[in-house]
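$ run holo --ligand "adenosine-5'-diphosphate" --emit tokens
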Amino acid sequence: MRAEKVVRIENVAMTFHSDEGEISALADISLEIAQGEFVCIVGPSGCGKSTLLNILAGLVTPSAGAAYIQEQRVSNATSLVGYMPQSDQLFEWRTIWKNVLLGLEVQNKVNDDTKAFVEQMLQTYGLYEFRNAYPSQLSGGMRQRAALIRTLAINPEILLLDEAFSALDYQTRLVVADEVKQIIARENKTAILVTHDIAEAISMADRVVVLTKRPGSIKNIHRIMLTCQVHTPLGCREAVEFKDYFNLIWKELDVHA
Ligand code: ADP
Ligand code: MG
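-- output --
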């Protein structure tokens, strides 16, 4: 199979203009991502990670350069992209069923086929029994899965995950990361995950992109090759190479360096 580049970021820069003056958030980012790849982006706080995802989602127009999704220049929000923000943003007054259908409702795409697709995902990912429950009745991990199903319901090609697991406690976070990685692989999606957790990035990614401090530019890209028995984010942490990647990226992120 040809390794098709589904995402292309070309010399993207972003400067925000505010009352306090100009803030240069991103400087000259170029990156290509292949179909089915899982890319993690790490970088110091405020270096423009969320801005980069916002640009890919078509919510922010870059001041220079351009982003392309399947060779189409990104100019506004497209259903090719599913965006899962930092907080799960489930609506507390809607049932899980009503929550996972939200994206489809917004796009006017609720029909028997899409409903069956969502029902199937709820079943596969252990939430079917909870479809009539409200978010407050679910655990953090279950909420995160519901948010992911809502994002997958519109059948996007590319998933953008912004610090998707940071609201979870450590134990839950490991389990949910495992689940999410499996779901994304099984649905054959391309994913970009922003995280400040180096271990999480190494254990989940095909490549880890390290950004410099603001204005964010690419400091290094690591292709992650781990020899582990079990290829899950948890199993990958057992790989002998894990610590080396960790130390390397840790040093690159050192704000004093
Ligand atoms: P990160 O996600 O890496 O923490 P962000 O992309 O959220 O960083 O922000 C990068 C920089 O751009 C920050 O200094 C932030 O204050 C600034 N910024 C982000 N969005 C806006 C905006 N809409 N207007 C002005 N400044 C912004
Ligand atoms: Mg951010």
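-- notes --
The chain has a mean pLDDT of 90.
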